[in-house]
């Protein structure tokens, strides 16, 4: 029997599994999937993992055995200590884990947040590698934070043509949590990468089915006037090259509309 849209309370076959802030029971579930017969994981069509610490490797363990997965929502937490060191996901390991569901996965959302303050955290500690999605051959929609898509540092970016799967239809570049100053993406950096991908309709060679790109306003300048200028530049660039461009304000603080703000 397959149970729809319910929390994890045991190990019966389920089509939808949601795990938030993993505890001992959830870690045991990951171990169970990795040691039991493949029949346990094959029923899972939707998997949500949120509040996950990368070193637990829960995603990597479960993805190895969810052979029919169609939707994966993954939000991990980066922990930073006072020495300026962080606990980061291994991009190569996670990319290989995603490849396990490359023949079935249609919808992917992968984001991150920081569990502690970034004060004192230095840029060199940030891993340069971004995730690669090429092997997700049936993926239709991808929602991913800027740092995970292009790399944690603007000086070591990944070209979109090299990372996006050929069947992609919708791409959303989402809010990235605040980064140390020397790791922050500037508007001109983002526009440069996007222009390289879409100019002259080059995107059609690698992602011929792509229809739209959604850009979160937080990737632009915090200055409202400059934000509108760069947003318009991006929209014009995309539309001139045959792509729809949408704006997202998730995570954007609108100072003018906050009536309860006191200083």
Can you tag this structure with a few keywords?
single chain; 263 residues; alpha/beta; 2 domains; nine-stranded mixed beta sheet; 8 helices; 26% helix; globular; disordered C terminus
Number of helices: 8
Q: How many beta-strand runs?
A: 9
- Oligomeric organization of the protein chains: single chain
Give the proportion of residues in helices.
25-40%
Task: Describe the structure in your own words.
It is a single chain. This protein folds into 2 domains: about 15-115; about 135-250. Strands 1, 2, 3, 4, 5, 6, 7, 8 and 9 form a 9-stranded mixed beta sheet that branches. The longest helix has 17 residues, at about 225-240. About 25% of the residues lie in helices and about 20% in strands. It contains 8 helices and 9 strands. With about 260 residues, it is α/β, with parallel strands linked by helices.
Quick description:
By secondary structure, the protein is an alpha/beta fold. Helices cover 26% and strands 20% of the residues.
List the helices and strands and how they pair.
Elements: E1 16-20, H1 24-35, E2 46-52, H2 58-63, E3 71-80, E4 86-87, H3 91-99, E5 107-114, E6 141-145, H4 146-150, H5 160-163, E7 170-174, H6 187-198, H7 203-206, E8 212-216, H8 224-240, E9 244-248
Helix pairs in contact: 6-8
């Amino acid at each position: 029997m397959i149970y729809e849209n319910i929390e994890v309370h045991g190990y019966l076959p389920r089509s939808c599994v949601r795990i938030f802030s993993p505890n001992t029971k959830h870690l045991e579930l990951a171990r169970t999937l990795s040691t039991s017969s493949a029949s346990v994981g094959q029923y899972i069509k939707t998997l949500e993992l949120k509040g996950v610490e990368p070193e637990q490797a829960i995603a990597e363990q479960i993805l190895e055995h969810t052979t029919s997965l169609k939707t994966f929502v993954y939000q991990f937490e980066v922990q930073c200590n006072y020495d300026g060191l962080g606990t980061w996901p291994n991009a190569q390991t996670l990319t290989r884990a995603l490849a396990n569901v490359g023949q079935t996965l249609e919808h992917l959302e992968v984001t991150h947040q920081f569990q502690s303050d970034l004060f004192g955290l230095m840029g060199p500690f940030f891993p340069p590698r971004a995730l690669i999605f090429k092997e997700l051959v049936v993926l239709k929609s991808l929602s991913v934070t800027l740092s995970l898509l292009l790399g944690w540092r603007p000086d070591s970016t990944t070209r979109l043509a090299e990372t996006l799967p050929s069947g992609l239809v919708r791409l959303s570049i989402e809010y990235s949590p605040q980064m140390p100053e020397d790791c922050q993406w500037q508007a001109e950096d983002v526009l440069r990468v996007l222009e390289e991908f879409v100019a002259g309709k080059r995107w059609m060679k690698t992602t011929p089915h792509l229809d739209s790109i959604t850009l979160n306003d937080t990737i632009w300048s915090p200055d409202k006037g400059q934000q509108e200028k760069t947003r318009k530049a991006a929209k014009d660039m995309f539309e001139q090259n045959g792509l729809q461009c949408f704006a997202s304000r998730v995570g954007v603080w609108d100072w003018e509309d906050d009536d309860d703000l006191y200083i």
